[in-house]
Amino acid sequence: HHNLESIDTTSMTHKLLLEVCMAAKYEGNSIETYYTPYQHNNEGTASQLCTVL
């Protein structure tokens, strides 16, 4: 059990930032990979990018 006063908040902040950046990178790669084929298969759809997300 940890006392909240003894937790290293700087380290936790860096870890959270790393996790957010990794998630953004993963999502960006996913959009890049799937958006172009989706765009070709669903031409004329006004919300193409939102649907891919």
Question: Can you walk through the features of this model?
Answer:
- With 53 residues, the protein is an all-alpha fold.
- It has one domain (4-52).
- Helix content is 72%, strand content 0%.
- It comes from Plasmodium falciparum (malaria parasite P. falciparum).
- Residues 2-53 form the Duffy-antigen binding domain.
List the helices and strands and how they pair.
Layout: H1 9-41, H2 48-52
Rounded mean pLDDT score: 77
Order of helices and strands: HH
Domains, number: 1
Task: Report helical residue fraction.
Answer: over 70%
Unreliable residue stretches = none
Terminal CA distance reads: 39 Å
Compact description:
72% of the residues lie in helices and 0% in strands. It has 53 residues and is an all-alpha fold.
Supply the key terms.
Duffy-antigen-binding; 2 helices; Erythrocyte membrane protein 1 SD128K; 53 residues; mainly alpha; host cell surface receptor binding
